Amino acid sequence: MSALRNNETDLAPEHSQARTVQVYRLVRKFVDNANSVPEGSKSVLYYTLSVGHHTGVIDCFERVLSMPVATFERICDGLDRGEARYKLEGVMRHSEIELGKAQVNLVIHALEPLLSSSDEEVSRFVALLLEQLRMVRDEAAVYVMIREVVS
Q: CA 67, 71, 72: angle at the middle one, nearest 5?
């Protein structure tokens, strides 16, 4: 999996820095009041909020899960090749991915077999990740961001 880093180049060597993969869940949105919305436009604003456009909207995330990069890589390695694995490996290629309603069922289905992994750390983090992904599936206007963080 490490060959996927930076599109198969090593443009940003990690040296001895700690690397984690962190999952953030959208907890609320609000409109930037600095750009006051005229009364006549509010219905358009609410529509854009519901379809996910972010004109003047600030998304607030909460970190809900953090795991070592090596654990995340083992999770990805345990998945069958396909769309779900490719989506999750995007964290290593691009340092960040978004998982919304369009992709979440595919990823949930791919991850569920790993709950019975012989690697206890993998099965524990998969269970925690699935909990967050099921919230995305079951609640309106929720999505998660998964990021690689170097500290």
A: 80
Compute, in degrees rounded to 10, the torsion defined by CA atoms 128, 8, 143, 65: 30
pLDDT in tens, 62-121: 899 999 999 999 999 999 999 999 999 999 999 999 999 999 999 999 999 999 999 999
Look at residue 10 and give its three-state secondary structure.
Answer: coil
d(CA 145, CA 21): 10
Spatial CA neighbour of 2 closest among 67, 68, 70: 70
Q: For position 8, what pLDDT does the model report?
A: 45
Tokens of 151: 């500290």
Q: Judge whether 114 and 74 are in contact, CB under 8 Å.
A: no
Q: Which two tokens mark 67? A: 């795991």
Sheet of 96-99, strands arranged across:
57-68, 19-31, 144-150, 96-99
Q: Residue 61, SS3? A: strand
Please name every residue paired with 59 in a beta bridge, in sequence order, or none if there are none.
29
**Contact present, 67 and 120 (Cβ < 8 Å):** no
